[in-house]
Amino acid sequence: MDILYLNKSVMISKSFVLLMLVYTPNVGFQEVYIGKIPNCLVASDVIEKKVKRDNIHNQSGYICITHKAWVSQNRYLKKPNPKQERLIKDIQEKLPEIKAKPLELRKKNEIN
Fold first, then answer.
1. For a disulfide at 106, which of 44, 58, 93, 110, Cβ 3.0-4.6 Å?
2. How far is 24 from 34, CA to CA, in rounded Å?
């Protein structure tokens, strides 16, 4: 179970995922997976150690999210779940068949 219930109104997640934001000129901001942490209070210490250890100069910040939210992003999972597979299949069935545009022969002196 991923969530503990306290007083039936407050939800506390058991694990959090720490992502570092790194800026690169070609790509822009990019999320780099750091790992799981017990809570977001230790996130800044973990980031400082990672930046010092790996000598990272382009670090722009970090994101600390619940493990459940991170899994729902589904960026780092290798295979979609059955519901997503069905959705992908349904969309592919509805899309028209892709046909290549026929080539047109041009004369030697013709421009466009």
1. 110
2. 17
- In order of 7, 61, 71, the CA distances from 10 in angstroms are 6, 28, 21
- Indicate the pTM of the whole model: 0.49
Q: What integer pLDDT is reported at residue 78 of this predicted model?
A: 67
Helices marked H in the chain: 43-54, 67-73, 82-94
Sorted by sequence, the CB contacts under 8 Å of residue 60 that are 6+ apart come out as 21, 22, 23, 29
CA 1, 75, 87: angle at the middle one, nearest 5? 85
CA distance 16 to 37: 5
Per-residue tokens: 54: 């790996």
For the chain, domain boundaries: 3-94
For residue 46, count CB atoms less than 10 angstroms from its CB and return exposed for 0-12, middle for 13-18, buried for 19 or more. middle
